[in-house]
Design a protein that fits this description.
Organism: Methanococcus maripaludis OS7
Number of helices: 9
GO molecular function: channel activity
Distance between the termini: 32 Å
Structural class: mainly alpha
Shape: globular
CATH topology: Glycerol uptake facilitator protein
Main location: membrane
Keywords: Membrane, Transmembrane, Transmembrane helix, Transport
CATH class: Mainly Alpha
Largest sheet: none
Membrane topology: Multi-pass membrane protein
Length: about 240
């Protein structure tokens, strides 16, 4: 595939992820606001995180199965950097992929805002991630590190490793993300992806909601988690 097609696929894939994943998080908050139900949404607590995780799982699986053959369906700067760190992705393409992912994330968040209006920002925050009450900056970074480590480790095993069985990557990776979000979402939002956080932050900031103070959490944790996971997998599987 040409680089232009790969970049379009990364942009489109990340846009789909951000529209449906963070969009589901924003929707649960708006439902809770309208009904007065305790918890993050109508189901209250863990049930809502399961619903949000399921939305991410389906969106990611769909993108991998449709875009994987075009660009590899990274749809995540941390994944791209992790593959670059172990020389599985060329340096000259890394920055271009990340730019395409960030643009796609912003477009996905903007389209969700266009569908609903200002309540998606003032009530739902466009599904933006931030540490929850009682969670320190370090704890949030650690949660993002652990979650992204698991995600990248699974990606290495089911998508990068040539010995992996065919046809399961999208399903397994999607379900892994869903499980991570269900478990760790109420710590720091379970972003696992700098682009997934960047899109909502950018559009939120246009309409007066400024969360950029937390953005380093969603760069440091996911990027370090992906790099460590990639090297760990390579070490464990080296003959």
């Amino acid at each position: 595939m040409s680089m232009i097609k790969k970049l379009i696929a990364e942009c489109l894939g990340t846009g789909i992820l951000v529209f449906f994943g963070p969009g589901a998080a924003a929707m649960t908050l708006m439902i809770a606001n309208n009904t007065g139900t305790a918890g993050i949404g109508l189901l209250g607590g863990l049930g809502d995180w399961f619903a949000i995780g399921f939305s991410f799982a389906i969106a990611i699986a769909a993108v991998i199965y449709t875009m994987g053959r075009i660009s590899g369906a990274h749809i995540n700067p941390a994944v791209t950097i992790g593959l670059w760190a172990i020389k599985k992705f060329p340096t000259k393409d890394t920055v271009l992929y990340i730019i395409a992912q960030l643009i796609g994330a912003a477009i996905g968040s903007l389209l969700f805002f266009a569908c609903i209006g200002i309540d998606s920002v003032t009530v739902g925050g466009l599904g933006a991630t931030a540490p929850f009450a009682g969670i320190s900056y370090f704890q949030a970074i650690l949660a993002e590190f652990i979650g992204t480590f698991l995600l990248m480790f699974v990606i290495m095993g089911v998508a990068v490793d040539k010995r992996a069985p065919d046809g399961f990557a999208g399903l397994v990776i999607g379900l892994t993300v869903g499980a991570i979000i269900t478990t760790t979402g109420n710590i720091a939002g379970a972003s696992l992806n700098p682009a997934r956080t960047f899109g909502p932050y950018l559009i939120d900031s246009i309409y007066g909601l400024n969360l950029w103070y937390y953005f380093p959490i969603y760069i440091i944790g996911p990027v370090l988690g992906a790099i460590v996971a990639a090297f760990t997998y390579e070490y464990l599987n080296r003959e």
